[in-house]
Amino acid sequence: MQRFLSHYYLSDMHRKITVKTITLLLLLVSFTSFASEGEGKGDKKSEIKEYIQHHLKDSYDFSLFSYTTDEGEHKYIGFPLPVILWDGGLKVFSSSKFHHGEELAEVDGNFYKLYHNHIYKTDANGTINYDEDHKPTNAKPFDMSITKSVVMIILTGLLMFFLFRSLGRSYGKNGGIAKGVGRFFEPIVLYIRDDIAIPNIGEKKYMKYMPFLLTVFFFIWFLNIFGLTPLGVNVTGNLAVTASLAILTFLLTNFTGTKDYWKHIFDPLGNSMPWYAKVVLYIILIPIEVLGIFIKPFSLLIRLYANMQAGHIVLMSLIGLMFIFKSVIGSPLSFGLAFAISLIEILVALLQAYIFTMLSALYFGFAAETHEHAEEHEGEIQHL
After folding, report:
1. Which residue among 23, 194, 213, 369 is least enclosed by CB atoms within 10 Å?
2. 233: how many CB neighbours lie within 10 A of its CB?
C-alpha cells in the first residue's frame, strides 16, 4: 500500500510539474504577443503591468491566450460566455457582441459597453460620462452574467459531486474499502476528520460540521490548482469568492453556537468577580468580543485572497522581467526563478485550503463548546 501511494504521489507530482511547464510556455506566448503589439507604444514596464492586471480580473469570455497576426490583428483563443443583465427586463446575449470590449452590444434597442471589466449602458456612440473624480456615471444594469470564474466554480462543483459520489459508492460496494482514485482521497478525508475536525470540535459534535469542512477544503484546493494550469483562472484571487466562503463560515459558526458560546461573548468574566466590579471591564471587553465575531471571517477571506493574488502577481512579474532584461543571462534566470515559484505555488494551493479548513474548524469548536468543556479549560488554565 505504501509503495502504491508513493508511486501515485510521484506520478501526480510529475503530472503537475508537466502542467506547470505548459502553463509557463503559454504565458510566454501571451507575453510575446503582447510585447510585440506594444512595441514603440510606451514603456515596457507599463505594458507588462497592464497585462498582469488584465489577467487577474474576471472576464466575460473564456480566453486561454491571445496573439497578434502579421497584419496587426489581435486574435483570441477561447469561447464567449452568456451575458445576463436586468435592465427594465431580462437581457441575455453572447459576450462575443462586445468583441473583447472593442464594440458596443445592441440588445432590444439598448446599447451596452464593456469598459474596465464593467458593463455600462450608453448611447449609440458608446459615450462614457465621468464625474469630477473621473468615475463613470453611466447607468449600470444589474449583472448576473456567467463569467469565467463562475464557469470554473460550476465545473469544480460538478467535478467534486461526481468524484465523491463515485467514492461513496465504492465504499458501499467494497465493504468500506476505497478503490481507484478513492485510495488517493481517502487519507485526506481521514486526516481532516481525525486531525482537524475531532481535535478542534470534539467527538460528540464534529460530524455535523464534516460535510462543510470537506467541501470547503476540496473546493479551495481544486480551484487553486486550476488557477495554476494553462486555463489561467484566478478564482480564489477574487475577493467576492473568498468573502462568500468566509460568510458561510461566519453563518455556520454563529447559527450553531451554543448558549455557552454567546455567554462567553457577552459575559466573558463569568462569576469570577462581583457584578459591580465587572461593569467597567465589560465596557471594554464586550465590544472587543463582538468585534471578534466579524474579525475572524474577515481574516479568513483576506488571507486566502491575498496569498493567491500575490502568487499570480509574482509569477507573472518574473516572466515579464524576461522582456525587460532581453539578455542571455537575465532571461534564463527569470524563467528559472518563475519555474521554481510555480512549484512552490503547488504547495501553497494545498496549504491555503488546509489553513482555511483548520481555522473554520477552530471557530466551529468555539461555537460548539459546552459548559462542561469550558470548566475543563478553566481548570487547565488554573493548573498552569
Report:
1. 194
2. 24
